[in-house]
Amino acid sequence: MTSFPRTILSYISLTAIYSLITVLGYSQNSRITVSGKVTDFTSGDPLVGATISVPDLGVGTYADEDGKYTLEIPAGNRSAVEVSYSFTGYSAQKINITTELPQNLRDVALRSEDYSTEEVVITATKGFAQSQSDVTVSIEVVKPLAINLQATPSIDKTLSQIPGVDNQDGQINIRGSSGYAYGVGSRVMVTLDGLPLLTGDAGTANLDLIPVDNISQVEVMKGASSVLYGSSALGGVINIVTADPEEKPKTSVRLRLGMYGPPANRAIDWDGDKNAWSASTHIFHSRKIGIMDFTLQSNFIKETGYRKGTDAEEYRNLIMLKFKPKNVPGLTFGLNASVSIDSSGSILYWKGYYPDTTVNGTERIVSGGALTPTDANGGYRKQLSTVAGIDPVIKYLTPNGKSLFWYRGRYLSNRNQNNTNQSTNNSIIYNDFLYQTTFLDKINWVTGATYTYSSIDGDSLYGGTYVFNGDTIQSTGTHSGNTLGVYTQLDGKFGRLTTSLGFRYETVQIDGAARESRPVARAGLNLRLWPGMNIRTSFGQAFRVPSVAERFANTTGGGIVVEPNPNIQSEYGYSAEVGLRQGFLADRPSFVLKGYLDLAGFLMNYEDMVEFGITKRQIFPVQDIRFSSINVANARISGIELTSMVSANWKNWFVNFSGGVVYLDPKDLNAVPAERQLDLVNVPSDIINPDKVDQPPFLKYRSRWTVRGSLSGGYKIFSVTANVRYKSFVENIDQYLYIVIEDLNDFREKYPTGDLVTDLIVSADVTKNSKLSLTVDNITNREYLIIPGFLAPQRKFTLQYMIRF
Known about the structure:
Layout: H1 4-24, E1 31-40, E2 51-54, E3 59-62, E4 68-74, E5 80-86, E6 93-98, E7 103-105, E8 108-110, E9 120-121, E10 130-131, E11 139-142, H2 144-149, H3 156-159, E12 165-168, E13 171-174, E14 188-192, E15 195-196, E16 215-222, H4 226-229, E17 236-242, E18 250-260, E19 277-289, E20 292-303, E21 312-323, E22 331-347, E23 357-360, E24 363-366, E25 380-397, E26 403-418, E27 424-439, E28 443-457, E29 464-468, E30 471-475, E31 478-494, E32 497-510, E33 516-530, E34 533-544, H5 548-552, E35 555-557, E36 560-562, E37 571-587, E38 591-616, E39 626-650, E40 653-668, E41 705-715, E42 718-727, H6 737-740, H7 744-750, E43 755-767, E44 770-777, E45 785-787, E46 790-791, E47 796-804
Parallel strand pairs: 1-7, 1-8, 14-17, 36-39
Antiparallel strand pairs: 1-4, 2-3, 2-5, 5-6, 9-10, 11-16, 12-13, 14-15, 16-17, 18-19, 18-47, 19-20, 20-21, 21-22, 22-25, 23-24, 25-26, 26-27, 27-28, 28-31, 29-30, 31-32, 32-33, 33-34, 34-37, 35-36, 37-38, 38-39, 39-40, 40-41, 41-42, 42-43, 43-44, 44-47, 45-46
């Protein structure tokens, strides 16, 4: 291992020498300069990453974030040169430019090819643009219109509407890659412009840092993605891409006011006639000022909480600065700064599904129930969370357009103070150095190195005195970790065939323990069989290093005791996929119909899967049910996913549909026979029987079937949208919860067929620059659980007004 840093230095040095030769290795004499902007012919949107080249001379460049480009051409003695403009999914253009003028201004608008119904994505290659249909893995795209219609201060509601994505109390999984891990650890990497949003201690995504009013698109890549994104990308990646300022300044103000109706079971309506409510103000501004791009977003959110004690106030502020010096073409550097202050209350689980009531004269007073927190110690928490981040970025595209150097960094500090004497203070420093180049105008090479350092001061939450393997251990709760990795990936397009091949080597160390190293690889193919029809296949390895919380959490809450397990091992696995995608397009003068149908079969295999398991059982007292995160199983998750998008426009009418169906078969390959399965519902005494094990063959917290669908239609300024979400019954949960959480089994027996939830959105343009919308969430007022003992919101009405100028 002592030679590993020298290997990295040699690797980076060779890359730098090659790049320097690339920059200097062409003639500087007899030059002309061509500059301009490349846009979409229909929408006028900039085509970021469009290629501008002179194939005969071997020079070229790419359009920047604004679609702009500048290309210096060594014309020699030529009287004219042929410049080619191309972009994936668009018909290329070739323009002859005479060399009489040393400066030429050429704006080019490219038309979409037939069957080009796909979005352009960058997540699969970490920055290199590809058509959605050409990617070798399944990838979904969500555009700003769908996000704005949700009328929400956070993106979690949007993620829950994406096929194959499940959000359980802020813990996100893709295609059943995770169950529920009690708020710690993540098998999905969530990034903002490629920068991870995972916290340093628990390894969970902080969705509050996402600027909802400045999203260009959300890209969801499904399947193992550790080659480019490292640990925690075991199940996939969700990348939120922000928008850059346009030529014209843009300002928006969004006002929300939401009101909860009474719950379906009026007896648990803890606040009586005082309906719970939420409100927020969102202010956004972006503009160009000389060489600087400036973006500001400020949010204030207040929520009384539909559950007792869950009131919240939150302030969020984000400033994004980007500079493009005119005297150094191709250079961009910038800095993002964000802060979020959140004061809120949270509950671990309910007091009980059935309420305790008393009668005071003719008044019925509700003193407990599913919307009231448990009385058990630690079941309710009041906390103040402060998150601050600084993200520097430096990007340089060489004059010949063949090489890109890109540094992205993040410092993220998270301080959490609460009333349970288990405050935490953690920070994470992330650095990613990326080099990208193109060979033969066909092969894109991305390579780089990533270094992450995290520091955690967890006081008694991650410290204190505990017994591990018979030894009494005392810990201050202070921990640290560092990760170093190098990666490389080649993506080529050869006619109708797209290929991808990548490799990563990563080494991880937690505190002073021995360093753990892992190599992973991925490969993929995508073949266009005929116009609109693509078949793809991919295989990718991945791993996940358990978080500090999974290793060292030492806490008690609501009768549940969590003990540390410092020796927990990392998870390792792979995913494989075969997919078929058919696009279609009918373009007529007054009618346009386009869309796609995508069918994928997938398989994920995990070794040493980490889940929380019972380590000590005793029926009296209940507080002696203890558990830790342990390597409990090897698992295999297979399934089929069908997704679709259809968009139709006829004169002033429009109809849009997107959605999908996922079937899962998640198996624990080390499950015990039925006669050894723990059954605390029918046989409570099993809790003291050491021969009984809570390890069923169907993995916990998964549903076999999930359905997502969004259908919208409208005429001119009016639109109506229905969002539908269905999850079949969650077959297995942790058995000990039946002992700890009152009435949990009664609720599950009441709803054995799963949950169907529908939201309705009606919107209208008030003026050219303003829109009014009414959202009714959970329109049928369905009772369902987010997680065990945690009732989802009842029907809610939200009025939103947005104005742009």
